[in-house]
Amino acid sequence: QIYSEEVDASDEALLRLKTECRDDPSDPAKALLLAEAYLERDQAEDALKSLRKAVSRHPPLRRNMDIIFAVANINLEQQNGAAAEREFEYAVSVEPDNVEAHLGLAEARFMMGDLD
Prior knowledge:
This protein has 116 residues and is mainly α. Helix content is 69%, strand content 0%. It is built from six helices and no strands. The radius of gyration is 14 Å and the shape is globular.
């Protein structure tokens, strides 16, 4: 879960969120809400696709830590350690002193059995 509140994941809400993301591609909160709506529907792959699309529409979002952590954590939850590792490595490169990024990287590596 990206947000602490429950997100409306109805078909109407999903359509509204997609439209809002398209109309305002620079707003990371809208991209994260859309991803959360997909997660509420157990559509993790669609959540990842929506975040990738947000970044492609507005490349500065690629350095947004909330977006990076969302992608990394979804990959962790989907047991995709390699993809999570790449995202957490990127997070560390963006913010080298970010403890959460280092912990996530360690968790991804642990998941893959890389204990070095």
